């Protein structure tokens, strides 16, 4: 008797290879933090880093990136639904490579900003399509672990950006120092592009487009196991996907306005957007502006170690999601982050302009405790949850809209940070203490848990009809269904309505 689909080695390999796109997002998002810390960067453009113009340029570099990212998130559905998930990934990789070349070859700050804008747009696309793709090939019981690889590999990208910046700090040729680390943005998307022909298309996208035979073949390959010689689990999943797609196809909900009008879809869109904003409300990006009296290469080392530890914590997050659930883990993380930011604010207020080495050490310690909570509970959870709450026909658009919350809130907080710290100092940290604590109570009460449910069954948590609920079949019903599936030999038989009775 089948007990539900399980990922095999091929499924894990495909998931982690697609995560080259996750690495692309992580490295590209973090690399400018290293570049700005390199001594040759601002002098090359004849800009005084400490001047108002220097602050404006720093803000613009972040602003165009996150603004472009939001635009990419809002565009992803048109590419992903029209071309398919795999072709969409290929198109995005080309854009990432071009934007990396523009930035590395910049001879004027305007050229850098244009490259950064294009890069942000492509990163918004890739940060949406990768968890969408991973969720559509992952079995329900292991979806947290597989989709969680997106957040884990993002942090690997953050860490590599930090160490690349630290290594470049000691390069004596100023023409190479900052260009090299920007050029390295092209490596991961190039590898993903080269290997992409071997990625299978999303079976859910294929089935939604009427390519049932190919969709079933890919499901069987993704979930093939020695203890399931007749591919019963894959056939169950195929039937569930097909019946749900047929049920939802008549709703004809496609554009953003229709999605926001539809009650259950609107709830999902707002929940996903809120989830991503809440992660940024912890202050994870703004914490990087913390000044504890460190100078020279020391901030780059701190930055690199910070992200290396975050990578490990993200891995832990991905491993525990399927056991403890999304909501509980996310709540622990947000509360822990708020406590750490509270103590960090006190350390900055007391020691930011010099003073006790012990006080500075405590400040550094709580930065690491912060990332322990954020990486161990928040970073992976937000991607997994947003990738699994939407139906197949609107998943790309829903995930894109949700992740745009990350870019919009990151744009807001990072643009305000330099001015806020210059004018009100540590008081700005209060924004990342009280609002998240208020918000966490809201999502604990209202956000449904999705652990262990097939993507087609999650809709029941939002009031939608589920065509075939495999999770709640009785033992006898599952035995009868599996016996029928083991006896069939053609796709027509798999998909025949007589195979699955409504009372099953």
From TrEMBL:
Residues 14-451 form the Major facilitator superfamily (MFS) profile domain. The chain crosses the membrane at residues 12-37, 57-79, 91-111, 146-166, 269-290, 296-317, 329-349, 361-386, 393-414, 426-444. It holds the Pfam family Sugar_tr. SUPFAM superfamilies: MFS general substrate transporter. It is found in: Membrane. GO terms for molecular function: carbohydrate:proton symporter activity. GO terms for cellular component: membrane. Keywords: Membrane, Sugar transport, Transmembrane, Transmembrane helix, Transport. It is a multi-pass membrane protein. PANTHER family: MONOSACCHARIDE TRANSPORTER (HXT8), PUTATIVE (AFU_ORTHOLOGUE AFUA_2G08120)-RELATED, PLASTIDIC GLUCOSE TRANSPORTER 4. Belongs to the major facilitator superfamily. Sugar transporter (TC 2.A.1.1) family. This is Putative sugar transporter. It comes from Mollisia scopiformis. The lineage of its organism: Eukaryota, Fungi, Dikarya, Ascomycota, Pezizomycotina.
């Amino acid at each position: 008797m089948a007990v539900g689909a399980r990922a095999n080695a091929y499924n894990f390999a495909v998931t982690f290879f697609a995560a080259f796109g996750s690495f692309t997002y992580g490295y590209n998002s973090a690399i400018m933090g290293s570049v700005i810390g390199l001594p040759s960067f601002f002098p090359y453009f004849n800009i005084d880093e400490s001047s108002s113009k220097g602050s404006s340029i720093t803000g613009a570099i972040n602003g165009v990136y996150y603004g472009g990212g939001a635009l990419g998130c809002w565009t992803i559905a048109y590419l992903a639904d029209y071309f398919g998930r795999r072709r969409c990934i290929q198109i995005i990789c080309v854009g990432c490579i071009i934007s990396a070349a523009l930035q590395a070859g910049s001879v004027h700050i305007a050229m850098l900003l244009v490259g950064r804008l294009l890069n942000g747009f492509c990163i918004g696309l890739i940060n949406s399509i990768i968890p969408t793709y991973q969720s559509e090939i992952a079995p329900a019981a292991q979806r947290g672990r597989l989709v969680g690889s997106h957040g884990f590999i993002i942090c690997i990208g953050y860490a590599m950006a930090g160490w690349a910046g630290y290594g470049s700090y000691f390069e004596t040729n100023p023409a190479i120092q900052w260009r090299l680390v920007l050029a390295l943005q092209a490596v991961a998307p190039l590898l993903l592009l080269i290997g992409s022909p071997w990625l299978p298309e999303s079976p859910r996208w294929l089935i939604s487009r009427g390519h049932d035979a190919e969709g079933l073949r890919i499901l069987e390959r993704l979930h093939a196991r020695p203890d399931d010689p007749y591919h019963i689990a894959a056939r169950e999943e195929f039937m569930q996907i097909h019946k749900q797609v047929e049920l939802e196809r008549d709703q004809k909900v496609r554009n953003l306005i229709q999605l926001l009008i539809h009650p259950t879809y609107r709830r999902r869109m707002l929940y996903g957007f809120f989830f991503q904003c809440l992660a940024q409300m912890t202050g994870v990006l703004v914490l990087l502006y913390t000044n504890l009296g460190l100078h020279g290469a020391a901030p780059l080392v701190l930055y690199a170690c910070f992200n290396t530890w975050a990578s490990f914590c993200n891995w832990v997050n991905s491993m525990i999601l399927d056991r403890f659930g999304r909501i509980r883990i996310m709540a622990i993380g947000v509360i822990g982050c708020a406590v750490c930011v509270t103590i960090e604010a006190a350390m900055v207020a007391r020691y930011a302009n010099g003073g006790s080495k012990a006080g500075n050490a405590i400040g550094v310690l709580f930065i690491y405790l912060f990332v322990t909570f954020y990486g161990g509970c928040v970073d992976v959870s937000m991607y997994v949850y947003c990738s699994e709450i939407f139906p197949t026909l609107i998943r790309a658009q829903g995930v894109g809209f949700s992740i745009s919350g990350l870019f919009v809130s990151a744009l807001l907080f990072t643009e305000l940070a330099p001015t806020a710290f210059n004018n009100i100092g540590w008081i700005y940290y209060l924004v990342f203490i009280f609002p998240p604590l208020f918000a966490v109570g809201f999502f604990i009460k209202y956000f449904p848990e999705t652990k262990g449910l097939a993507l087609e069954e999650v809709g029941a948590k939002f009031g939608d009809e589920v065509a075939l609920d495999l999770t709640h079949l009785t033992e006898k019903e599952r035995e009868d269904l599996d016996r029928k599936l083991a006896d069939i030999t053609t796709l027509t038989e798999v998909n025949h309505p007589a195979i699955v009775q409504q009372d099953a």
